[in-house]
Every structure is written in C-alpha cells, then in structure tokens.
Amino acid sequence: MLQSSELKRKNMLSLERIPDQIGHLILTEDGAVLTSGGELENDEKFANIIVGLVTLTNKIDPKAFPNNEVFDKISITYPDHCYIICLSNKKIHVVKKRLVSSTTAIVEQPLIDV
User: Fold this and answer.
1) What is the DSSP string of 18-70?
2) What is the pLDDT averaged over residues 75-100?
3) Contact 38/47 with Cβ under 8 angstroms?
4) I need a surface site. Which of 33, 72, 94, 102 has the fewest CB within 10 A?
5) DSSP assignment letter at 103
6) How many angstroms separate the CA atoms of 103 and 112, rounded?
7) How far apart are CA 47 and CA 30, in angstroms?
8) pLDDT(85) > 90
9) Residue 105 CA to chain centroid, in angstroms?
10) d(CA 25, CA 5)
11) Which InterPro entries match (predicted)?
12) Are 71 and 50 a contacting pair, CB within 8 Å?
C-alpha cells in the first residue's frame, strides 16, 4: 500500500502530465487542499470558491435534471485559460489549462533572396 506522501506525489505527477496544464488542486469534499501546484499552489481562496460551486451543483432543482443526474465534469472557460473540475474517489480534482488560440499562431514571413 502506498504511503500518503507517495500517493500525493503520484497524483501530482499524473496531473502535471496534462498538456498545457498550468496549475492543479486536489481537494477533499470539505475543501481541504491535499495537493496543489503551479498557479494554484496553496490557493485556499480559490479552493473555497470551487467547493462552493460543487456544493451549488448538489442543490440544482431535480425537476430540471431527472433521475438524480450528477455532473461528471465542470468546465469554466476564459479566453486564454480554463478550469476543469471533476469528482473522483471522494476528492475534487481541479486543473487550470492554458488555451492556445488559433489566432495567436505565429505566421512566418517568406524569405526573399535578392
């Protein structure tokens, strides 16, 4: 069985492999930060906001979402980055990813020999 520190290191390494990831958090259901890194390292204020959002989803009117449907993933998208939030093993996983816009592609000028 993995020790607590080994498990944290394994979770952190797997989150760091996500392409364009610039920050991550793993939280308990009550909002305690288990692991964090990048731009979200030790960001307890952000962790509280995420827990509030997840709690809010539990209070959605069941008439709007029949059969006790629960969310698989919440994505919050901004022009240059996004947050992806999901629940797994009674933990809240959050990844902040950089979004690469097609309009920011570098256009090379053709070389002209004279």
Assistant:
1) STTEEEEEEEETT--EEEEEETTTT-HHHHHHHHHHHHHHTTS-TTTSTTT--
2) 92
3) no
4) 102
5) G
6) 25
7) 10
8) yes
9) 25
10) 15
11) LAMTOR4
12) no
Are the beta carbons of 3 and 20 closer than 8 angstroms? no
Write the single-letter amino acid at 109: Q
Residue 104, SS3 per DSSP: helix
100 CB-near residues (< 8 Å, 6+ apart): 20
- 45 alpha-carbon distance from chain centroid: 15
Q: State the residue for tokens 């958090």.
A: 25
Q: Where are the alpha helices (DSSP H) in the chain?
A: 4-16, 44-57
**Domain locations along the chain:** 21-98
Q: Letter for the amino acid at 27?
A: L
Which CATH number does 21-98 carry?
Answer: 3.30.450.30
- Mean of the pLDDT values across residues 94-108? 73
